[in-house]
Amino acid sequence: MIAEIGHYALILALLVALVQGTLPLIGAQTGNAAWMAVARPASVGQMLFIGISFGCLTYAYVVSDFSVMNVAQNSHSAKPLMYKISGVWGNHEGSILLWAMILALFGMAVALFGGNLPPTLRARVLAIQAWIAVGFLAFALFTSNPFLRLDPAPFEGSDLNPLLQDPGLAFHPPFLYLGYVGFSMAFSFAVAALIEGRVDAAWARWVRPWTLVAWSFLTLGIAMGSWWAYYELGWGGFWFWDPVENASFMPWLAGTALLHSAIVTEKRDALKSWTILLAIIAFSLSLLGTFLVRSGVLTSVHAFATDPTRGVFILAFLVIVIGGSLTLYAIRAPKLKAGGLFAPISREGGLVLNNLLLTAACSTVLLGTMYPLALDALDLGKVSVGPPYFNGTFGPLIMPLLVAAAIGPFLTWKRADLPGVLGRLKLAFAVTAVVFVGSWMATTGGSPLPAIGLGIAAWLFTGAMIEFAGRIKLFRAPLSVSFNRARHLPRSAYGMTIAHAAIAIVVASIIVSQVWRTEHIALMHPGEQVEVAGYTFTFKGVRDLAGPNYSAQRAEFVVTRDGEPITRLFPEKRTYPSQDMTTTEAAIHTTWLADLYAVIGDPDGEGGWSVRIYHNPLVPWIWLGAIMIVVGGAVSLTDRRLRVGAPRRARAAAGADAKPQTA
Amino acid sequence: MKRKHRRLVFVVTGLVLLGAAAGLVLVAFEDSLVFFYSPTDLIEKDIPEGRRFRVGGLVEEGSVIRLADGLTVSFRVTDLSETVPVIYKGVLPDLFREGQGVIAEGHLDASGVFTAETVLAKHDENYMPPEVADALRASGKWKGADAE
Question: Of A33, A540, A576, A594, which has the fewest CB atoms closer than 10 Å, so is most exposed?
Fold first, then answer.
């Protein structure tokens, strides 16, 4: 009964979305206020119905109702409650429902907080949002219905993929989706603006916070996914340039570019059509990511759905959304009024460079991700594009961006004095030189690339600090003045400083962890010792252990340094009988400067076990840095000028110069 | 500078970047594209020793031998027509088993033994690496349930 309510609510949501996509759009075109007004209640209703539907599915999971096929295939009565709930989106059907629910959530946010948006813009934005929802709801209902029943109901479910039974992955998809779907807001605003034929500062002021929200969630989602890969896959790595990882990284890159170009559109009324194009690209890449992961065209750790009809549906949807919006862009963008002029050396110029580098880097990732698929589809052979490709293309393109990111914030709008700015960065030059020389000496005879990378990270970090110090006139004015200035600095300035410094930390940590990591593979017998990076690991043996829905073999290592006990590590191999699957549980001890990481492999049958021990320096700082980036985004969001729903003043200003344009 | 000139600066910067990106991509493709071959391909094509590629198929029943150091494993990968000997030093993936699909990445040494640097196994009971399934189909030995 509950499942049928969920199914029925999903159908109602589709019908509401159809109404929401049609009437307001016609109303906005013909000036019919009543039809436009349909959009707000409709989007609330749509959210309500999808929420009911999602709640019903969650209920079926929590009570282990195995008469629902989706539950039977992906859950198990012995599974801990947390994984019963995360199992809702741990499978294809449920994750599409989650996608649709988050989409409706964003739509409802516009309806509720968008009281001061121009009515036609609001109606159009909500209508576009509804059409995306129609696509996803139809996809769910016609190809991926999570409410199908099984008769007879099995006595027990076949369980969730054990790799996914993990706190890191339980909450990775919702954050990732909040990011992916969040870009739908920028997209809907972009398409609505193209229909209206008008883009102004007020428009950008609306788009920026939504993009920032989406981007922050996406950052968090990607970081969680990478953290999960690090401790769950047991390879000691955290980023594999796997197509599924790239699928989430590409919208992030495009979103980062959008975030920066929207600043120019807001502050200087320029780069309008470029900003719109980026909004379309960012969301298109989100859809592409969904397609890559959900259609089964890839086969990798994440790709647990395989069904060609779904692939064709998503592909058709992609063609309509991307093709349609780009066609609309091609027709309407030339009509957008060009905005403020600026010299190449200026804040705007710096942000354009940022955008060019980010899009170029994003294109190389796209090419590397799609090339093997294209080659395979054309029957030209099977290839794989691995880390060497991405390191060789993405790296050289992103390094100049990091160099420029230190300089950009010093540049003034319209026209800037580059030699003067570089003069202010003397300290940064000095720090960079020291870091470069120091790290090159430490890599003794190796490639200079890591030293260059670390130098650039130092450059960006120091640059961000000098820029902040300059803003509050640190050491140039009395401390009380600096303190006062710091208090009144806009939150978005803080956000930028934090995010840029955090990027520098992430880059430096990634480089250090790659260059200075120690890996030791050995066959060990109980009682044997091994020394890794100054730590002594004593293997105590392996014993059997029973978990709630698995059995495990747990090894014990005693770690000491210079005779002082540091920690004990318990890596495990778990066997899940319901899926006949084994997973590796790495044991990690972090000193905050480095991770000690141990994994056990197979026994040799004579008392020996193959083990892998890693010393991964600075790896914890990759995640801490990622969290700092998100904090930067959040701080920036609290900026008064950006607060969601705040642009009242802007709207009044926009209203004054709003000239009705015929479409 | 006139508007036209300014625009020119950005267009030229964009084109230079695009060129740089294209150049990087071409160089990287030259060096780092990894091709996939089945054991039959290996016999038919003459692949130079030392070149990095992937080979995939099933782990031949009874072929897995752990060498004296306890870490190095030798096994044979088969597409049921031809086989290729593989050696690998390190920890095998959780689901590495005889008779199951496997992909190894590495290179051939002078004696025709494939030295693997990475070994990927299927990740669950239903999953067969698509390359392996195609290789088996090509050799006419595909017996599994055909999803397509």
Answer: A33
Shortest CA distance from A163: residue in chain B: B123
The answer to whether residues B22 and B87 belong to one domain is: no
Q: Does B26 touch chain A (CB under 8 A)?
A: no
What's the distance, CA B55 to chain centroid? 5
Structure ipTM: 0.79
* Residue B52 sits in the same domain as residue B5: no
Who contacts A430 (Cβ-Cβ below 8 Å, separation ≥6)?
none
In a domain, B14, yes or no: yes
pLDDT of res. A18: 97
- Assess contact for A593 and A580: CB atoms under 8 A: no
Q: Is residue B108 part of a domain?
A: yes
Neighbours of A592 (CB within 10 A): 9
**A18 Cβ contact partners less than 8 Å away, ≥ 6 residues apart:** A130, A134
Q: Is the dihedral of CA A81, A83, A87, A88 positive or negative?
A: positive
Helix residue ranges, H only, A197-271: 201-232, 243-268
3 state DSSP class of A589? strand
Measured CA angle at A410 (ends A406, A413), to 5 deg: 130
- Global pTM reads 0.90
Distance in angstroms (rounded) separating the CA atoms of residues A95 and B126: 21
Q: CATH no. for residue B61?
A: 2.40.50.140
* % of chain A exceeding 90 in pLDDT: 56
Residue A396 and residue B24: Cβ atoms within 8 Å? yes
Report DSSP letters for A95-151, one per residue.
HHHHHHHHHHHHHHHHHHHGGGS-HHHHHHHHHHHHHHHHHHHHHHHHH--TT-B-S
Chain A nearest CA to B36, separation (Å): 5
Which residues on B lie below 8 Å from A161 (Cβ)? 124
Q: pLDDT digits over A603-635, tens only?
A: 877 888 889 999 999 999 999 999 999 999 999
> Domains in chain B: how many in total?
2
Q: Residue A320 carries which DSSP code? A: I
Question: Which range marks the domain in which residue B7 is found?
Answer: 1-33
Q: Is residue B146 part of a domain?
A: no
Are the beta carbons of A338 and A268 closer than 8 angstroms?
A: no
